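ok trying again, last paste got cut off:
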Amino acid sequence: MSAALPIRLASDAADLAAARALFAEYAHAIGIDLCFQGFDGELASLPGSYAPPAGRLFLAGPPGDACGCIALRPLGLGAHAAPGTGFGPPVGEVKRLYVQPRARGTGAGRALACAVVDAARAIGYRTLCLDTLARMAEARALYASLGFAPCAKYYDNPLPDAVYYALDLGTR
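nice, full thing came through this time. structure:
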């Protein structure tokens, strides 16, 4: 795998099938039943809430060989700030950052995360939120390196080791 994997928006049925497969692989890799997030419905309805204009679904790798993904969707907090962040709406949520083992160490995870942050700014989000697991040290380090900071729990996640982050995108 090249260190400069292309990052692209999922744009057709083949890309959505690749995203669906990567999402399923992600869920299997973390070993957690994501039913509390409506995961089966999310898979069935892709791109769903990740569709433009308020969402994005990115893939890493050339067409026909996606090896990573990340998604962005609006976070329905209404006119309220993201809890515990002090940041204002509109708020987006980062979901499903995953890079297959064959592409780890290539910078694909960072490139995907940067693409979603850039897209969130372009859309007009002022805040980005995400959750991850305490045991995902590499993901947490990546988020911190991009300016994400720990924040209060912003949705009902039953996992005891869930941790929450937010990034102030400011106004543009």
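cool. The chain has a mean pLDDT of 88. The chain is about 30% helix and 25% strand.
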